[in-house]
Amino acid sequence: xxxxxxxxxxxxxxxxxxxxxxxxxxxxxxxxxxxxxxxxxxxxxxxxxxxxxxxxxxxxxxxxxxxxxxxxxxxxxxxxxxxxxxxxxxxxxxxxxxxxxxxxxxxxxxxxxxxxxxxxxxxxxxxxxxxxxxxxxxxxxxxxxxxxxxxxxxxxxxxxxxxxxxxxxxxxxxxxxxxxxxxxxxxxxxxxxxxxxxxxxxxxxxxxxxxxxxxxxxxxxxxxxxxxxxxxxxxxxxxxxxxxxxxxxxxxxxxxxxxxxxxxxxxxxxxxxxxxxxxxxxxxxxxxxxxxxxxxxxxxxxxxxxxxxxxxxxxxxxxxxxxxxxxxxxxxxxxxxxxxxxxxxxxxxxxxxxxxxxxxxxxxxxxx
Length: 368
Known about the structure:
6-stranded mixed beta sheet; wza like fold; Outer membrane lipoprotein wza fold like; about 30% helix; 5-stranded mixed beta sheet; lipoprotein; 3 domains; rod-shaped
């Protein structure tokens, strides 16, 4: 039996490893134990109504930069590439020199790259930079030398000179012309048609005059949203990023552990858990629901681990107000009985190994 002693000691050490193995259990005491290496890198924060209120007050996604709201479109000014239609009443030979049977654009006047256009009995005039009314006044005054009291009307058939650029997760990307009706941000987004399945609507970027403005389209449905007061101007660029690099990860004792696409800043903890079928009733611990949020520089600031006890029905109301962020990890720990069952499942194979070892020693002793 002496040779059975080392085997028993080995099994004992194995059992000891099983007993102290944390498995999937997140020990909150170890997270915040003063003086431990983890204490300087991990901050455990309970999810409470006060925390939700503080984060809501610190959320500035609903605030539109004042300079964007201050911009108000002026009257449209003609530019190179615009197609102008000039009507001189009672003088069809001037209005439609190509003939009345031609399409209306055939009788339009294209503003040249240098900003000028030619019109009979008027000559070459500088059209770029003028409003429609200013151009009409110039043409009328020059035609008055050859036509008695000319009645002139000017309109733009095709707007080309002023435009915004759409890129990213729009169904229609490229140039979007600005016409003589002010173009709002929301109208431009509507014309571009957002690809809702792939777009990160919380990350829209408006580039203007060398500056970039981050706009959260999720804020549109929030109280006191000012997004509908933003107007675009010539040269603006709208980039809507894709959401394939932004995800929420749900792990542990949930019914369907997987990643979720982060589609907007309105995603909350309750929605995320509901998307994976909620917590496993048989194995999960409602008091061990964590949201692990990383940081850009771990050397300078700790990782935040938010915790909520969902055993209380009222806690779900708090979870519904707790907003998730891209790359958050939602982890649900196992219940005590689950950890015990897993421990037992590890012990029994080892106990069988121990019994087998003792039986071998007995057999060897009997043979001797």
